[in-house]
Amino acid sequence: MKLGSKPDSFQTDGDSIRYVATELATDIIVNVGDVKFYCHKFPLLSKSARLQKLVATSNDEIGDETHIQDIPGGPAAFEICAKFCYGMTVTLNAYNVVAARCAAEYLEMYETVEKGNLIYKIDVFLNSSIFRSWKDSITVLQTTKSLLAWSEELKVISRSLDSIASKASIDTSLVEWSYTYNRKKLPSENGNSPQWNGVRKQQTVPKDWWVEDLCELHIDLYKRVITTIKAKGRVSGDVIGEAVHAYALRRLPGFSKGMIPNNDIIKYRSLVETIVWLLPTEKGTVSCSFLLRLLRAAILLDCGEMERNELTRRISKQLPEATVTDLLIRSPAGEATIYDVDIVHNLVEEFMTHVSQPIPLKRNSMRALEVPSLDQMLLKCWLQS
């Protein structure tokens, strides 16, 4: 959205000076961080109650110079506000609107100061454009990360969350916006099917259309989005499970191969613990293989006992789905066995608490294991049940 119509007359002198190039001499210096803004009092004070108060209480010894070091968004956000005061053309978009909104709040650019002030203009833009757009809502939520306290207070985060969750929960027949969905096309979509009659049918929107776009979010924001989607109660556990699975694959390097990076243990431990917390409660909404990979990661990253117990409980309910490869969890360094027999033993014991009678092993799951000690442990548990 463009505001103002006058040409941009802000000029730069080095890295630390910004000034308005006009015939009229500037009469106020506003220090924002390391940048000095040489401006005119009238346009700034006519729209900012905070600057009015700062100038009124300024020390005469330093003249008309004021400092606002703690303005959210820093010099870039202040410049947007200053240009608006001058009526200069300024463009708001999903990447700068949060900083501009927070800075305008800091400068107290309210309607009581002047009608049609910046806060009002930005709120109209957010409601009429940003929060109606799927990808802009995600972008705005991402930009709140550096301005969390302000964004929370101004309800930018809550409005972003509601916008994203509402769109993710909508009937797929109503999805009309673009989204990221990397999947193999059907033969009929490529025109390569022998039965293809030359007419391309409009493909239906998949239920998990929103999953990949949300993988761009930091884990803290992702957790809040998924929690909000769950609270609306219109998305099935299967789709939530697919979303969490996709996020784990994107955010945990090597996860699909059973490997976990060791360069930032605290970061990845927190991520795994949060993913466990986000798993849908319904049985079967995520695969046993995925749960076992999470358990392997939780062990390697020394996650909390609560998370490991929760994974053990969930895996035990789906244990017949497990394959030999899934169950081969390496023992910690220094152990006598290559693979952790105790973990599998605990899983089988927990599984037996959920069944009233033994269930025969499937041919393609938990079949004869390559590690004798592990094989013996499993058989012993089954025979003693």
UniProtKB/TrEMBL annotation:
Keyword terms of this UniProt record: Ubl conjugation pathway
The keyword Chloroplast is assigned to this record: no
Taxon lineage: Eukaryota, Viridiplantae, Streptophyta, Embryophyta, Tracheophyta
Domain NPH3 positions: 208-385
Family named by the database record: Belongs to the NPH3 family.
Pathway, per record: Protein modification; protein ubiquitination
Native organism: Hibiscus syriacus
Gene Ontology biological process terms, A to Z: protein ubiquitination
Pfam families: BTB (PF00651), NPH3 (PF03000)
Protein name: BTB/POZ domain-containing protein NPY3
Boundaries of every BTB domain copy: 26-94
